Amino acid sequence: MNANTAFMDTDFTQVLVSNVESAADANQRALTNTVISPRFYTTDFDAMDKLDVSAVRQEWDLMMQEYEGDNNHDHFQRDAEFAQEVKTLMAKLDEKLKQEFYDFLISSLTSEFSGCILYNEVRKNVTNPDIKKLMTYMARDESRHAGFLNSSLKDFNFGIDLGELKKSKSYTFFRPKFIFYATYLSEKIGYARYITIFRQLEKHPDKRFHPIFRWFERWCNDEFRHGESFALIMRANPKLLEGVNVWWIRFFLVAVYATMYVRDHTRPALHDAMGFKSTEYDFEVFRITSEISRQVFPILLDIDHPQFKVSLDKLTALSLTMSLAKAQGGWLNRVKQGYCAVAASVEFARLYFLPVIKSKLPTQVRLTPTW
To answer: Which position has the higher pLDDT, 38 or 41?
Structure first.
């Protein structure tokens, strides 16, 4: 069986993960690290402490005023209709869609909580007033997001023990510049994902199968502002956007886009319920993220290059084949896993070396979330 055959003939979601049937299952899902699951990070706090944002002082101070104004301080509260909507709407869903939605909630919570932990640890370990203040505000926002998601999981008795998650999940060390590239992209692609869903369900409210989606517009504006913060840090330190670092930016662009594409293709029922096809949804998110990232990145991926989608589909198929082989066990399947890992590396390299689009950085860094 080759990878493409497996991709076409197999139910992706049923082989990648077991169903979430209990809080223990949900917590184990959050703790598990895979190639496509959100991770926890730590970094070089001394290097973070030395950051200088004086080159973008005017834009920085305006942004700090926005954080201090905290226009979402009252947003993450469940209204009177929330619980009744959950009870009424979720009862109509089939088990496949429910499982994909649980996975979406757990993955989203893990990602938000990852940001909360990273920002809070930086805050505690620096004295630089600009960075300390920024990290305090961003940790505040991410804590609200994670808590709001956890409340929705608790509706199904699948609440995550955040204290245990913080203590037990493994951490990956990233140098500050890698934190900037990866987290900037994570925040901006998070905005693009949430706003795309919100706009779709705004047009088609009959497809809003859970009330949490009503919160997405103002929620994703937090994500947008977080990305703006990292954009200002990088623009204030232009060496981060020059020379060999352009190749690192290219790496993180490919890695973030490819990871999202593979992960989203494990949730076809979720996207279908909202009126999307997974591929169409992902390419709309890529388009928005690419438009936004012109503010800081000197290169963009050419998402319209014909090889781009071909390689993403091959990576998705290889991921499925590896999951099947792991689930089936045995020495032959271990060999198959090794083959798929090598083939995936080759396909990732093909994506990495596709022609890119060069972009001139604008004079003004900050953008408004108008998508």
So the answer is: 41
d(CA 225, CA 144) in angstroms, rounded, equals 15
**323 in a structural domain:** yes
The reply to whether 131 falls in a domain is: yes
Question: Residue 327: which domain range?
Answer: 3-69+82-358
pLDDT tens for each residue of 194-234: 999 999 999 999 999 999 999 999 999 999 999 999 999 99
177 vs 175: CA distance, rounded Å: 6
Any alpha helices (H) in the chain, and if so which ranges? Answer: 3-9, 12-16, 23-31, 45-49, 57-69, 82-90, 95-125, 129-154, 162-168, 176-203, 216-236, 244-264, 268-273, 278-293, 306-328, 331-352
As beta bridge partners, residue 171 has 40
Taking the complete model, does pTM exceed 0.85, yes or no?
Answer: yes
User: What's the token pair of residue 173?
Assistant: 């060390």
Kindly state whether residue 45 falls inside one of the protein's structural domains.
yes
How many residues can be counted in the chain? 371
How many separate domains does the chain show? 1
